[in-house]
Known about the structure:
This protein is of the alpha/beta class.
Amino acid sequence: MGFPLSILDLAPVGAGESATNAIASSVALAQAAEEHGYQRVWYAEHHNMHAIMSSATSVLIAHIGAHTSRIRLGAGGIMLPNHSPLTIAEQFGTLAAMYPGRIDLGLGRAPGSDQNTMYALRRDNRSADAFPQDVQELQGYLSGNTRVPGVNAYPGKDSNVPLYILGSSLFGAQLAAALGLPYAFASHFAPQALTQAVAVYRREYRPSEENPEPYVIAGVNVLAADTAADAAAQLEVTRRMRARLLFGRGRNLTDAETDALIASGAGQQLDGMMKYSAVGTPSDVRTFLEAFRKEADADELIVAHQAPGTEGRLRSVALTAEAMEQVPA
C-alpha cells in the first residue's frame, strides 16, 4: 500500500450470535488483514457492552497471534486507569515473548465504561488523574528502567514493547508529545478535535530515543462494498446497530423503534460521531481515505470496518486493500 493502513477490531457480536462466533470472526478478520497487507490489527478494551467482545484484550490478542504469523497485533487500546502498570507490563511482556516483534501497546485514559462498571472493576474514579505517571511507570517496566525500586516485570523487562498514546482531545496530544511517543486519535467516533490535536502534537513534539520523529495514526470508519447501493444498505443496518448500542438503554428495540429514535435526534449525534466514514465502492473509499489522510496530517490510518456482518467486513477488508494499492506513497 502507498501508506500504512491498519485495522481496529472490537470483536462485535451480532444479534443471535455468541461470543464464540464473534471471536472466530475476529480471527478471520486478522487473517484477511495479514493476507492483504495491513500494517497491524488493534483491539479495544470496553466493558459492560453486550455487543463488544474485546474486553479481555490481552487474552484476545494472544488467541489471534496463535492464528496469524506476521501481522502486528496490539491494544487500541488498554484503558490504563483500569489496571496497575505492572500487570499490563507483565501481560504485554508475555505477549511479546510469545510473538516477538509483533506486539504494540496503545494506552487510553478513559475507563472504557460507565461509573458503575468502573466501580465493578475496583478502580478509583480519580485513577485517570494519574495517567501520565502510570504511563511512565509502565514504560519503565518494559524498558528495564523501573521507577519502583526492586520491582520488575517478568516477563516484560527489556521487552521494549512499543507504546502509543490514544486520545480524542488535546490532553493526549500534549502527553504524547511530551513523552516522545506516537499518537493515535480516535477520529472514528470522536472527530471534533482531530486537526487541532494533531497540530498541537506535531508542534510540541519532543524527540525520544525510540521515536525521533512524531507519528500520527488517525481512526476512520470504512464500509467498502462492490456497489454503492450495497454499501448504503449495509450502512443503514450499521447505524441502527450503533444507535441501539449507544442510545437504546438496554432495550430490545425493533427496526421501526430504532428508526424513530434516530429521527428524534439521536441520528444527528450518531452522524456527528461517524463524520469520518468512507462508504461506497473501492474507488469511493480510496478517494475519501486519501483526502482524510491529508486533512488529518496522519502518517497511518487505522480503519474500523463497519459492515454489519462478518462476510461484509471481510469483503470490505479486501476491497479497501485492493483500492489502496493504487495510492502512491
